[in-house]
Amino acid sequence: MAAAAFGFAVMTHSASGATTILISPGTGATDDIKNGGFESGSTGNYPTYTVVTDWFNFSGGTNTIAAGNDRERTGAYGGSVAVTLTGASRPAVGTGHTIAAGETFNLTFYYGSAEDWDVGTDTIGVFLYSTAGVIWSDTVTPSQNALTGNFDLFTANHIPVPLANIGETLFLRFESNAGLNEYAAIDDVTLTVSPIPEPSAALLGGLGLLALLRRRRS
Question: Which of 92, 110, 168, 196 might form a disulfide with 151, Cβ 3.0–4.6 angstroms?
Answer without folding.
Answer: 110
